[in-house]
């Protein structure tokens, strides 16, 4: 079974030179990849990619560090785009208290508005949370029917256990880094059927490519690492995480 990259940004300018080749490698090596919007422009680019390439699905939304242009009008356009066939989630949305581009209250307001949008459309969400886990969990509890994925899961095993009844945990290249002890523990303790693989490319390249440009096919290094940590076969990791990704985004067998 082939892997899925559940979170990538191939509309990023770092792929301007060779995007077609990168997508060809997805086509040949992965089940599919999900390109993630982070503002209006990137959501539009995402939609275009999903229309052109079979192997690309997408999400639309405003990342918490990019909410300055979130308006009523933008929200309406998000909704229109979200109704398109291959747009499979609202995201990435959430809270980022590390960069703190906008005050906490503003971030929480826009996070809630996009959760309401997902609720209205009955769609899953892709959550970004950095140095803000407590408030993230608190707000998600206000929306008990919302499901989705906590992308690049940064939390503890305890918090993971609170979330996995309705959220998958997105595991990326950070798992392969030397200081990944906390995340290794999460992967050890949380059942495979709650994990999905991601790259967050062009960022977060896994070992042995750390520091270089990342791309979707490198999810295989994350898959290998999970197999090693859990003491199971790579094939088992591939099979279960790909099924999880399809369930997460409601994507049928292709
Ligand atoms: Zn991302």
Automatic annotation (TrEMBL):
One protein family per Pfam: TatD_DNase
GO cellular component, one term: cytosol
Keywords carried by this UniProt record: Hydrolase, Metal-binding
Secretion signal, residue range per the UniProt entry: none
Domain of life where this protein originates: Bacteria
Residues given in the record as a divalent metal cation 2 binding sites: 128, 151
GO molecular function, one term: DNA nuclease activity
Residue numbers binding a divalent metal cation 1: 7, 9, 92, 200
Matches recorded under NCBIfam families: YchF/TatD family DNA exonuclease
Alphabetized PANTHER family for the sequence: D-AMINOACYL-TRNA DEACYLASE
Protein name stated in the entry: TatD DNase family protein
Lineage: Bacteria, Fusobacteriati, Fusobacteriota, Fusobacteriia, Fusobacteriales
């Amino acid at each position: 079974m082939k892997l899925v990259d559940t979170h990538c940004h191939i509309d990023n300018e770092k792929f301007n030179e060779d995007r077609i080749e990168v997508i060809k490698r997805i086509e040949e090596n992965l089940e599919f990849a999900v390109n993630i919007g982070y503002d209006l422009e990137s959501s539009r680019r995402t939609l275009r990619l999903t229309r052109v390439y079979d192997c690309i699905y997408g999400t639309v939304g405003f990342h918490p560090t990019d909410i300055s242009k979130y308006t009523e009008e933008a929200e309406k356009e998000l909704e229109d785009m979200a109704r398109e066939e291959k747009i499979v989630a609202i995201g990435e949305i959430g809270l980022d208290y590390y960069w703190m581009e906008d005050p906490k209250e503003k971030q929480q307001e826009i996070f809630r508005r996009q959760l309401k949008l997902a609720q209205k459309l009955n769609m899953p969400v892709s959550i970004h949370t950095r140095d803000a886990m407590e408030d993230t969990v608190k707000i998600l509890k206000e929306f008990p029917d919302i499901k989705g994925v906590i992308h690049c899961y940064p939390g503890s095993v305890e918090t993971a256990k609170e979330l996995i009844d309705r959220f998958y945990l997105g595991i990326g290249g950070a798992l392969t880094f030397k200081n990944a002890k906390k995340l290794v523990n999460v992967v050890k303790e949380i059942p495979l059927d709650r994990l999905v693989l991601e790259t967050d490319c062009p960022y977060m390249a896994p070992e042995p490519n750390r520091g270089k440009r990342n791309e979707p096919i490198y999810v295989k290094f994350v898959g290998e690492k999970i197999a090693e940590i859990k003491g199971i076969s790579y094939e088992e990791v591939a099979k279960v995480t790909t099924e999880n990704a399809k369930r997460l985004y409601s994507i049928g067998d292709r």
